[in-house]
């Protein structure tokens, strides 16, 4: 806390090593990974207003650069979130 932070700009990095561990693109473990990954995003989306509310509380009169800097302050971070 207290330092300028940045969001990862690259999409999730699913390397060949990870794929190999899960049995490749047709492996049962990979199919389960896909299902859980999608389910996680659906859960995050359904709770996004709660998460944004918590972020807004943390931003209120905050002196942390990550909430007041030009990159994320002034509600910019909330729009990106």
* Largest sheet, strands/sense/barrel: none
Helical percent range? 55-70%
First CA to last CA: what distance? 18 Å
Mean pLDDT rating: 78
DSSP strand (E) fraction? Answer: under 5%
Count of extended strands = 0
Q: Give me the secondary-structure category.
A: mainly alpha
The sequence of SSEs as H and E is HHHHH
Low-confidence stretches: none
How big is the Rg? Answer: 17 Å
User: What best-fitting shape do the alpha-carbon axes yield?
Assistant: elongated
Q: What is the helix tally?
A: 5
Describe, in plain words, how this protein is organized in 3D:
The protein has five helices and no strands. It is an all-alpha fold and 81 residues long. It starts with 15 loop residues before the first helix and ends with a helix. The chain has helices at residues 16-21, 28-46, 48-59, 65-68, 76-80. It is 57% helix and 0% strand.
Brief digest:
The chain has 81 residues and is mainly α.
List the helices and strands and how they pair.
Layout: H1 16-21, H2 28-46, H3 48-59, H4 65-68, H5 76-80
Note the main attributes of this structure.
5 helices; elongated; mainly alpha; 81 residues
């Amino acid at each position: 806390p207290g330092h300028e932070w940045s969001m990862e700009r690259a999409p999730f990095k699913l390397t060949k090593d990870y794929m190999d561990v899960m049995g490749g693109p047709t492996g049962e473990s990979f199919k389960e990974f896909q299902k859980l990954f999608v389910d996680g995003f659906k859960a995050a989306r359904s709770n996004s207003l709660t998460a944004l509310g918590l972020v807004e509380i943390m931003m209120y009169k905050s002196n942390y650069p990550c909430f007041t800097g030009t990159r994320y302050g002034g509600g910019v971070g909330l729009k990106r979130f």
